[in-house]
Here is the input.
Amino acid sequence: MKRAIIKASGTQMLISSGDVVFVDKIDEEKGKKVIFKEVLMTINKDKVKIGKPLVEKAKVTCQILSHVKDKKVRVQKYKPKKNYKRIIGHRQEYTQLKVLKIEG
Here is the structure.
């Protein structure tokens, strides 16, 4: 089983072929393929390739399954004795990816 550490939307994640992962929203249509070329490390059974900083000629191919939103997070600002209170809501958008192939 091949595994890799990739850099996707500013975060590093360990993935293996066949995994379903969530990353920050990618502006592509459902069903399209996305290629990540920022591969930091690949693992193939006993062979480990560590990039300096990236592994050469390595890429990860993923397919977009869906676009989803996370639960709402409520953020509150409050200053005592000043009659100031603000409540703001935020829902983070994610893209669900299925890892098809790890090369390199």
